[in-house]
Amino acid sequence: ISACLVGSEMCIRDSCSTYEQDCPPEEKCMPWASGGGGSWDDLGCFELDPMPQSPGEGCMVEGTAASGVDNCDEWSMCWDIDPETNTGTCVAFCVGSAASPMCDAPQRTCAQSNAGVLALCLPLCDPLLQTCTEGSSCLPGGGGFVCQPDASGDGGGVGEPCRFLNDCDPGSFCTNAGSVNGCEASACCSAFCEVGVGDNCEAPSSCLPFYPKGTAPLGYENVGICGLE
């Protein structure tokens, strides 16, 4: 199956892998938003920049952050995009396989999200302090929490419907409807909270541990999510 970008001569071929980079020569496999918007929902082959940037170097996207077109090399993508300048930093894709992902760089964890479309080696962050840069949100990924672009737009408030992890405002998380008071969709946004620190959720919700007892990664033992018992 193939589809062409509106207003472009470039055609997007489906069914590729960022782990294998199995696109034709001079192209690379990239996550992109097949229906537009800010959430990556598919993988496709895009033209590789003739003078690509490497992980850690500055980069630029064409159109939007999720267009699939950037000037990073075939083993990375442009991340943490400034929407005013379309510039960001090349971040390495995870290596290995979808079943056994890993990262070569130290102090990075493989964060798989959006049904596996995104698989990036990202630094860890604190969801309670929201230590990411403006325009990003600290969300679950890999062995803890990582910074991901905020795609909430005009929505994303607590209790509002969501589809992807980054559909919610910073400080909140897209979770199953049964956990969110008053949610009328399959999933809604719920706020992060600190376990054991008073009543920091709106009734009838309470602060529930994000991780089952004894499974929280080091440093995330007190992270909770406002939900229904």
Structure description:
- This protein has strands at residues 2-4, 11-13, 27-32, 42-47, 58-60, 76-82, 87-92, 95-96, 101-102, 109-113, 118-122, 136-141, 144-149, 172-176, 187-194, 206-209, 223-227.
- With 229 residues, the protein is an all-beta fold.
- The strands form seven sheets. A four-stranded antiparallel beta sheet has the order 14-15-17-16, with no helix packed on it. A three-stranded antiparallel beta sheet has the order 5-7-6, with no helix packed on it.
- A hairpin with a 2-residue loop joins strand 12 (136-141) and strand 13 (144-149).
- The chain is globular and about 55 Å long.
What's the short version?
The protein is mainly β and 229 residues long. It contains no helices and 17 strands. A 4-stranded antiparallel beta sheet has the order 14-15-17-16, with no helix packed on it. The protein has a 3-stranded antiparallel beta sheet with strand order 5-7-6, with no helix packed on it. It has a two-stranded antiparallel ribbon with strand order 1-2.
Radius of gyration: 18 Å
Oligomer: single chain
Low-confidence stretches: 1-13
Structural class assignment? mainly beta
Shape annotation: globular
The portion of residues forming beta strands comes to 35-45%
Biggest sheet layout: 4 strands, antiparallel
Order of helices and strands: EEEEEEEEEEEEEEEEE
Distance between the amino and carboxyl termini: 45 Å
Q: Which whole number gives the mean pLDDT?
A: 87
User: Main sheet: which strands, in order across?
Assistant: 14-15-17-16
* SS elements, strand count: 17
Helix content bin: under 10%
User: Helical segment tally?
Assistant: 0
